[in-house]
Amino acid sequence: MLQERHGRPNAEASHSLGKYDVAEAAAYSQDPAASQTLKRWEQLAPYAAEFVGTALLTFTYVCMGLDQNVTWGKTAVGLAVVVLMYTFGHVSGGHFNPSVSLALWLSGRVRTGVLCGVISAQVLGATSAVWLRFCFRDTPPNFVPQSGSLPWAASLIEIFFTMMLCFVYLSVAVSRRNNPATDPSSVVGLAIGCCVMAGGYSSQAISDSMLNPAIAVGMQLLQVTRGADMVGWGFGFLFCEVVGTALAVTFYRLVYAEDSEHMDWLDGETPKALKISQKLSAEFLGTFFVVFTKGLCHLGGSPAEAWAVAAAYGAMVYSVRHISGAHLNPAVTLAVKASGRGLIDLKDTISYWAAQFLGGCFAAAMFTLMHDIETFGVEREAGAPFYKIGLVEVSFTFALCYIMLATNTVKPVDTVSRQNDAAGIAMGGCILVGDSGVGHISGGIMNPAMAFAITASHAFTGGQLRSVLVYCGFEAVGALLAAAVFFVTHIHVYTGRTPTLGLKIKA
């Protein structure tokens, strides 16, 4: 792999043996001349993987952009990232993006010479894919800010979502807390793909987010030679993506402080105790991206609002679950506190709430400014009685909090990994079901920080604040119900004994 995990080279990188079996390969490698040839190919393999992976990703991106597939285009690009990460990740680390490579270099994981080589491979791969797409469709891609949108808003899209993507990569793929020596994370591709989906759907009304300097440069070079309208925007996006990368590394060093201070952890060493500043930074950042995605998708009229918010939630859960528990929601924090297991004390509970509300309010300020002071309220169904809104908010907040307690606070049993990799999928899935199912009634909020941020921003343009208390009250009821039901169904967590009824399926 191109990066050095935890400050030392990864000696376990595996390579395909092609048509040779193990015995033939061993005999072949004993020949000095053949051994030198194999070493050269091994050195070339990561760069070749980055070239091919970036080319395939760019080709998918450009095809979806030219065909204007509003509903499924960003999902296709996100799934391409997932597939490519799991295909090439063990060879090169699966960067496919100069921003990711730069983030690794800034955090001390990649040498300068390697950085230059891998970025060259990525830019060459992206440029080749752009030209290939142009060859069989004589319409150059023209990714500029949408008509009527604010140009600087497109820049902020690139900054914030490149920051999200790089932070998630560093957190999930590199950090020692997410990658113990004997139990590395297996959700890197899924988390990065979710970032791409969230950023893509959030930006549809403003610009077609690139989040990738290699794609920006490749498309800019094509535009320069074809004389199209995008001249300048490719390099402008590149600058914004570099800024987003720098912000990602800054927050990574704040949230994962011990990785920066003590990169050469020994295998089996117990991680240092977390500081409250690390936990609050994680909650602020995670809540910000969830609310930011929600607001941009709604104001932009995205057909995949629920899908994008679920993707953002899942990505941030996988990023900060080993730091703060990835609550990202005051109702979830209340449920964890009410579950009575000593996972969080009252002082930290209040601090979490403050960080979550601040993150939500900052997100609301950003998406309001980016849409030229346009806001929206939490209620969707005109004239819907509060009992109807309350019923759906209590129900789905209960579901979200219960799922979080049952997955993110309980270690899995009967599995090789001690990391509960189902947590992000389960919680994101709950967001998707709730927002899709009852979003037309209550907005599918399920989060007091989101309700407060959206309502507060709406109040600046004549909206009413009274609904926020109703939403927060209903969501608090859902959280307390979740804690009570969790106690009943997971009593073994409190007693330390496994369930004895015998209903568990055995192999």
From TrEMBL:
SUPFAM superfamilies: Aquaporin-like (SSF81338)
Signal peptide residue numbers: none
Molecular functions per Gene Ontology: water channel activity
Name by which UniProt lists this protein: Aquaporin
Subcellular location: Endomembrane system
Keyword terms of this UniProt record: Membrane, Repeat, Transmembrane, Transmembrane helix, Transport
Gene3D superfamilies documented for this protein: Glycerol uptake facilitator protein
PROSITE patterns: MIP (PS00221)
Record GO biological process: one-carbon compound transport
Keyword Membrane on entry: yes
Record-annotated membrane-spanning stretches: 44-64, 70-89, 110-132, 152-174, 186-203, 231-255, 350-369, 389-410, 468-493
InterPro entries: Aquaporin-like, Aquaporin_transptr, MIP, MIP_CS
GO CC term (a single one): membrane
Primary location class: membrane
Membrane-topology annotation of the record: Multi-pass membrane protein
Pfam families: MIP
Source domain of life: Eukaryota
